[in-house]
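Journal club prep, notes for RB
We'll compare a predicted complex against what the paper describes. Inputs for the zinc ion case:
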Amino acid sequence: MKKNAPDFQSLAEEQLRSSSLRTTDARIRVLATLLGARHALSHQDVQDKLVDMDRVTLYRALDGLTDAGLAHKISGDDRVFRYNAGVEETEAGHGHAHHHQHGHFKCTRCAKVFCIDNVDEKLFNTDMDSKQGNSSLTLRQQLQKILQSTLGKGFQSHEVELTIKGWCAECALQAK
Ligand SMILES: [Zn+2]
Ligand SMILES: [Zn+2]
């Protein structure tokens, strides 16, 4: 949990300034909304929070932020795209780019999508060549083994997407 209520507006401005994007009022507001959300937001969710923003401006802002790597797009089972801020604060407190090596949790009841940022780095260790020590295989390596044993030796995995599906805490509570 964050100790101080973060100033998402300033954080958004800061991130935009250090990106390749031009800083516009719309981008700041959209990014600040994504940064402040606990779960990923659809176009409609963002629109509901920024009611006075023109729909096209909102779409463009989301696309721009996604292209610049400040936000990322997650496709839902309901064919709705949801967006989450791509740069998040680490536990250590300094801004840290979170690329796509993170997982998602999708609630099958309310369709909310949460980013799992603290997926153990070992799970997705990209260093396939290091044979140091006798550490157990990372999940990536295990999946590579499964891939080759089922489909053939020639297959190589480059990326693994982790999505956990289930009920979010709120829905689990309601289901009781
Ligand atoms: Zn995510
Ligand atoms: Zn839910």
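Talking point for the session: The chain has two domains: 1-99, 101-176.
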